[in-house]
Specification:
The chain is an alpha+beta fold. The chain is about 25% helix and about 25% strand. The chain has a domain of about 90 residues: ApbE-like superfamily (T-fold, Orthogonal Bundle).
Length: about 325
């Protein structure tokens, strides 16, 4: 197929394709006999745009240029301003459990390049970590961004999920079909929910097959996101590191949970809450209850806890909160 897309194995009533994207895997599925090509073209446009705006690993991305700009105040594009506004909103909503000022902490942990090029075992020790400067030190007024000198921004907790929402909406409109877009563990849907909903397999790693422990569910909600400390891991002098930073310490989160999956009305909301839950640790269930979120939490020992109406059926199909056709 064009654009590096490859056909997914046949699924009754659906057509789909996948390709590498944003350091992970993009998948697009549409229902019925509609044309897949227009959906893929729209997904490509959104993926390219978010990569241009928010990649931490491309020196020519707008975010990289902002991070290297010493001026305390700078005008950014409307696209980047929108992504920054999402990050700051969820920082405030989660009381700082999500924080876009963890860029320096990620570098200190050794996450300084695209994960596919990251050494799994390196002799270099992780650099000393300090708490993130704090999202409250970042101001965004329209398209004018202000932050203290030296603060490095990272939008990994929200930008990809926002891209999934936009890609699903545009791909669905272009194809005239119900559409599902997955960017790594971030899933967004658009259009009328197919009969029976979207069947989704959940586990620690979105790349895993049906053989690994997990749960198969029927998704009716618009968004779902899985965050995990089990994937995107590397070693620094015998110390296991991962990409989910606790802003309070500047180190990889060491909470009670290893994986959190949340459903919500948008993928952005689901991703923000799944990431915050892992950082929150023992406070995760209270945090999710405050937002009325349905979630599946997996503890470090593999024990599974269901919150907010998440179905407890093991590997059986079970409908998640949401309303078909909404």
């Amino acid at each position: 197929m064009e654009g590096g897309w490859a056909r997914l194995p046949p699924i009754p009533g659906l057509s789909g394709a996948w390709r590498p994207a944003l350091g992970t895997t993009a998948r697009v599925l549409i229902a019925g006999g509609h044309q897949l090509a227009p959906a893929l073209r729209e997904a490509d446009r959104v993926i390219a745009q978010v990569d241009d705006l928010a990649s931490r690993f491309r020196p020519d991305s707008e975010l990289a240029r902002v991070n290297s700009d010493p001026r305390p105040e700078i005008r950014v594009s409307d696209g980047l301003a929108s992504l920054l506004a999402d990050a700051l909103f969820w920082s405030r909503a989660t009381d700082g459990l999500l924080d876009p000022t963890v860029g320096a902490a990620l570098l200190a942990a050794g996450y300084d390049r695209d994960f596919s090029h990251l050494d799994e075992d390196a002799s270099a020790a992780p650099r000393p970590s300090t708490p993130a400067p704090g999202w409250h030190q970042v101001r965004l007024e329209g398209a004018v961004l202000a932050r203290p000198s030296g603060v490095l921004l990272d939008l990994g907790a929200t930008a990809k999920a926002s891209a999934a929402d936009v890609a699903a909406s545009r791909a669905g409109a272009a194809s005239g079909a119900a559409c599902l877009v997955s960017l790594g563990g971030d899933i967004a849907t658009a259009g009328p929910v197919p009969a029976g909903g979207w069947t989704v397999r959940i586990g620690d790693d979105h790349r895993g097959g049906g053989e690994e422990p997990g749960q198969t569910v029927t998704l009716l909600a618009r968004g779902m996101a899985t965050s995990s400390t089990v994937v995107r891991r590397w070693i620094r002098q015998g110390t296991a590191m991962h990409h989910l930073i606790d802003p309070r310490t500047g180190r990889p989160a060491q909470g009670r949970w290893r994986t959190a999956t949340v459903v919500a009305d948008t993928c952005l909301r689901a991703n923000a809450l799944s990431t915050a839950a892992l950082v929150a640790g023992d406070r995760a269930e209270g945090l999710l209850a405050r937002f009325g979120a349905a979630a599946r939490l997996v503890a470090a020992d593999g024990r599974v806890v269901h919150c907010g109406g998440w179905p407890s059926q093991g590997e059986e199909l079970a409908s998640l909160p949401g309303r078909a056709g909404a």
